[in-house]
Design a protein that fits this description.
Blueprint: H1 6-13, H2 19-29, H3 33-58, H4 67-101, H5 111-126, E1 136-137, H6 141-152, E2 166-176, E3 182-191, E4 196-203, E5 212-217, E6 220-226, E7 230-236, H7 240-254, E8 264-266
Parallel strand pairs: 5-8
Antiparallel strand pairs: 1-2, 2-3, 3-4, 4-7, 5-6, 6-7
Helix pairs in contact: 1-3, 4-5
């Protein structure tokens, strides 16, 4: 059997040789009793396996092994992985805001500092949402404006940022932990590229601090503004110049009297 190895024997028994190779192989087998005996053993083994497992082969594929179900399970696992990654980003965003409040030498945070941190935390939580990014959709803005104005006990405007390329997605009511018994309105906008910015608006009563403040939180910019009626913190990932232009648009609609100017505090 110097030219006949077991691989060739198995391919011959399984019918995997082409016609020319099979003919040449059978010529080599002539008079080779050892090879013929091994072929006979392989055929008996194959018959025994088919007899043993034929009933199982006729059964339907178990549901747990259904290829479509396995593909769906794999897809769900990938989505869970992406969800965990998104949650990590949200936690990092909240951690950045908290770290800014507790930065060395800052002393006890002022109310407006806490409002900025709350705005950034809320931004990172809700911009990552798809179906639940807002509580009331932008196509029901009249109801949203009335509802939020009543809850904040102030006449609230829904700024129109369409001229800056941002569509109004809607808004929600949020707690304002920095204010005693306070409430905040979060309004969300989305650009054509999917980038989102949020406005975090509260009543101005009991809030100390400047009329205008800008802060960089890593890739995000937070621009705080206040007048006698409301405070508003706009948060987004645009460049400082882009965000300041957008903020002037927002603040001018909330208070036509003026928007203020300022420079960034870098985190």
């Amino acid at each position: 059997m110097s030219q006949i190895n077991r691989d060739l024997l198995m391919e011959y028994v399984d019918g995997q040789l082409d016609a020319a190779t099979r003919e040449a192989f059978e010529a080599q087998l002539a008079g080779n009793a050892e090879a013929e005996a091994e072929i006979a053993a392989l055929r008996r083994q194959g018959d025994a396996i088919r007899t043993l497992y034929a009933p199982a082969g006729a059964e339907a594929v178990p549901r747990r092994l259904d290829p479509h179900r396995l593909a769906l399970i794999g897809q769900r696992r990938r989505w869970r992985t992406l969800g965990r990654a998104a949650m990590i980003l949200i936690i990092l965003g909240i951690g950045v805001a908290a770290g800014w409040l507790l930065r060395p030498g800052a002393g006890a945070p002022l109310v407006y500092d806490r409002l900025i941190a709350d705005a950034v935390s809320a931004h990172n939580v809700y911009v990552a949402e798809n179906r639940h990014a807002v509580e009331v959709a932008g196509n029901d803005s009249e109801h949203l404006q009335t509802w939020l104005s009543n809850r904040l006990e102030t006449d609230l405007t829904m700024p129109d940022l369409s001229n800056a390329g941002f569509a109004f997605l809607g808004g929600r009511l949020l707690p304002a932990p920095a204010l005693s018994g306070g409430r905040a309105a979060q309004l969300m906008y989305e650009g054509a590229d999917g980038a989102r910015v949020t406005l975090y608006i509260t009543p101005a009563s009991g809030v100390d601090g400047p009329d205008y403040e800008t802060v960089r939180f890593g890739p995000d910019s937070a621009l705080y503004w206040a007048n006698a009626q409301v405070t508003c913190t706009i948060v987004g990932a645009g460049t400082p110049e882009t965000m300041q232009a957008l903020a002037r648009n927002v603040f001018s609609q909330l208070s036509p009297q003026g928007t203020g100017t300022g420079t960034y505090r870098q985190l």
